[in-house]
Write a structure and sequence with these properties.
By secondary structure, the chain is an alpha+beta fold. The chain contains 19 helices and 21 strands. The structure holds ligand BES and zinc ion. The site of ligand BES has 16 residues, from strand 18 and helix 4.
């Protein structure tokens, strides 16, 4: 933590002008009870460091053990010109400690007033200094009879969870676009709330948007009420799963419960690409129990979306870079869908337990892919993932190679590595290998059924694993060193790494190429995307001439498959094949997906004279990237934002 929050002196104003006398909506009220003890209480509680938090979530200021928000009602108006959302949120409270205040997380928010269920002002404080990652706690003193707290607020145009896009950044180029990204701890920059995955809330929302723009949210129910769109989520979810998008949006049904949302210009292509969505949901239901969220829709965002996908309940947010035209990149949809069980139904209680979300989800994703597309494809995709894991492990400090990673004092985003994903999934695959598929599937299904709508820690999982799987077969259990898998660095030697016979054809082609065969003569007919990715990864130090010959034969620079294109641009940049330069620049100027940006900028950095070029492109592209990608690349490129540049986004 670089800027630890300061604790204001007891009773002194703390600079952010909280007011006990000014109610929400500007109504003036006389406080009903003396303020002096309150000021003291607030000052002492308000700016404490997060480790005080008894919920053991070191990434939240909230004290849900004392006062817990159980339901929230949002009422927001979107102003695309100002890039501001303004309105209010009302929290319904479960007051476990009647003397304790309500502590909420905020970041970059302007608080305009706080009132109780009668509209009477409540005293509040929010320290001036913000923690670099955690933001600022908003502490509200409660009266004995306070049951709900309404906070009037507005967001900053720089709110990290929100990306406001100009029309040119969309596919249609006519209308602006907004989307939010909550995970891991960004929701606090658009809603003041208890931003810990251990706190689950039901919620409802009213959203007003300029006419012609359609707001959608990660909620089961949608409706209209006058000039507002309304939403309701009646299943309790963690804060990072509350999401909103708004733009020129339309939808196409895939089945009774599945649809695709996108800008009109891409919605038909998107619907074709996701034609197997319903089969995917049915596969996961068959394996791991009922889909408990009603609808399952996917929303395609503009290409600046910093992730591949985000599992917002009932409405996965996805990058358009998976629209390859041949369904070859839909494993990402299987992944986000699988989160409807691992993550959204059974949720990591802290970011230290992130592997419970992602490792389980990669495992489920692989099971869905095998079910819908067959074993060959699933095995190849697993093998590619394991290769990525081994490469990433080589560059990670030992402490970050651990599934149960300690992220205290760090950005929880640092835990988003292949360790949580592919090492986590390899652990479950190892258990499957030892206990057999039938027992492992039944075990996982029981895990979801018995922890549905709960937030769980690694300790809870280990206890369940021991009781429900290991204890029943000690001989099998002796073959898996659970503590080694969960608490230690590196990849255990017993990690199953599948190979696929379909990769043999690729390896043969690579050998032929090495012994001088012309690219056009290689036996590549019928190759699928994983095979091409294996091919590109297997070319060792090809010269620019070889790359030019490959490009003539296979037209990689023109590829419409973002995974193949990214691997190709990376390789070509590193090997000095400059015919890709313009394609690379175009890609970096339009796509904001961090997974692609990182290796491509790194490839530039690693070449002679490449740093100047990287910075030249980055300076122009940066305003189009989401804050999440900006943070990563600023650090990578040593880029310092000019503070007079109007905010830089
Ligand atoms: N939940 C994650 C995205 C995420 C993780 C956002 C942590 C912020 C913090 C999502 O399910 C995910 O894993 N997306 C991957 C794709 C997947 C196929 C591995 C991505 O975006 O690359
Ligand atoms: Zn995921």
């Amino acid at each position: 933590m670089k800027n630890p929050p300061r604790c204001p002196a007891a009773g002194a104003p703390d600079g952010v002008a909280p007011s006990a006398a000014r109610g929400y909506n500007g109504r003036m009220r006389t406080p009903l009870w003396p303020l002096a003890p309150l000021a003291c209480l607030l000052a002492c509680q308000g700016a404490g460091t997060p480790p005080m938090n008894a919920s053991a979530d070191t990434h939240s200021f909230a004290r849900p053990d004392q006062v817990r928000s159980t339901h929230l009602a949002l009422d927001l108006t979107l102003d695309f010109d100002a890039k501001v959302a303004s309105g209010s949120v009302t929290h319904t409270l479960d007051r476990r400690d009647p003397a304790a205040p309500l502590v909420l997380d905020t970041n970059q928010l302007t608080i305009e007033g706080v009132a109780d269920q009668r509209g009477e002002a409540l005293p509040w404080t929010c320290p001036e200094a913000a923690d670099e990652f955690l933001g600022r706690p908003l502490t509200v003193a409660l009266r004995p009879d306070t049951t709900t707290v309404t906070i009037g607020y507005r967001t900053s145009p720089l709110a990290e969870a929100m990306q406001w896009l100009a029309p040119e950044q969309t596919n249609g180029k006519q209308a602006p676009f907004l989307f939010t990204q909550g995970q891991a701890i960004l929701t606090r920059s658009w809603i003041p709330l208890q931003d810990s995955p251990a706190v689950r809330v039901t919620w409802q929302a009213r959203v007003r948007a300029p006419s012609g723009l359609v707001p959608v949210m990660s909620a089961g129910q949608r409706g209209r009420d006058g000039d507002a769109y309304t939403f309701a989520m009646d299943r309790a979810v963690p804060s990072y799963l509350i999401a909103l998008a708004c733009g020129d949006l339309t939808s196409r049904d895939i089945s009774d419960r599945c649809a695709v949302w996108a800008e009109p210009s891409i919605v038909d292509a998107a619907a074709r690409e996701l034609g197997d969505m319903e089969q995917m949901v049915q596969a996961c239901e068959q394996l791991f129990g009922p889909y408990r969220w009603g609808r399952y829709d996917v929303l395609f965002l503009p290409p600046s979306f910093p992730f591949g996908g985000m599992e917002n309940p009932t409405l996965t947010f996805a990058t358009p870079t998976i629209l390859a035209g041949d369904k070859s990149l839909v494993a990402l949809i299987a992944h986000e869908l699988a989160h409807s069980w691992s993550g959204n139904l059974v949720t990591n209680a802290t970011w230290r337990d992130f592997w419970l979300n992602e490792g389980f989800t990669v495992h489920l994703e692989q099971r869905i892919m095998e079910h819908v597309y067959g074993q060959d494809r699933a095995q190849m995709e697993i093998a590619l993932g394991m290769k990525g894991l081994q490469e990433e492990l080589a560059g990670l400090p030992a402490a970050d190679q651990v599934l149960h990673i300690d992220l205290t004092g760090r950005n929880p985003d640092d835990g988003m590595t292949a360790v949580a994903y592919d090492k986590g999934a390899a652990f479950l695959r190892r258990l499957e290998q030892v206990f057999g598929r039938a027992r492992m599937d039944a075990f996982l299904r029981a895990w979801f059924d018995e922890h549905a709508f709960q937030s769980v820690t690694t300790a809870t999982f280990v206890e369940f694993l021991e009781r429900r799987l290991l204890a029943k077969d000690p001989a099998a259990a002796a073959q898996v060193d659970v503590a080694r898998w969960i608490e230690q660095a590196g990849l255990p030697e017993d990690a199953p790494i599948p190979d696929s016979p379909l990769f043999r054809a690729v390896d043969d082609a690579l050998a032929a190429l090495r012994s001088g065969e012309a690219p056009g003569e290689l036996a590549t007919d019928g190759w699928t995307t994983p095979q091409w990715l294996r091919f590109l990864a297997g070319l060792d130090e090809p010269s620019a001439q070889v790359l030019a010959a490959l490009d003539r034969a296979f037209r990689f620079t023109q590829s419409g498959n973002s995974e193949i294109l990214c691997a190709w641009l990376d390789l070509s940049t590193r090997r000095g094949y400059h015919a890709v330069d313009r394609r690379l620049e175009l890609f970096l100027m339009t796509v904001g997906r961090r997974k692609f940006l990182k290796p491509l900028y790194q490839a530039l950095l690693d070449t002679e004279g490449g740093k100047a070029r990287a910075l030249d492109i980055y300076r122009r592209a940066r305003p189009r990237y989401h804050a999440v990608s900006q943070h990563t690349l600023d650090a990578m490129l040593g880029f310092e934002e000019k503070t007079d540049a109007g905010g830089g986004r």
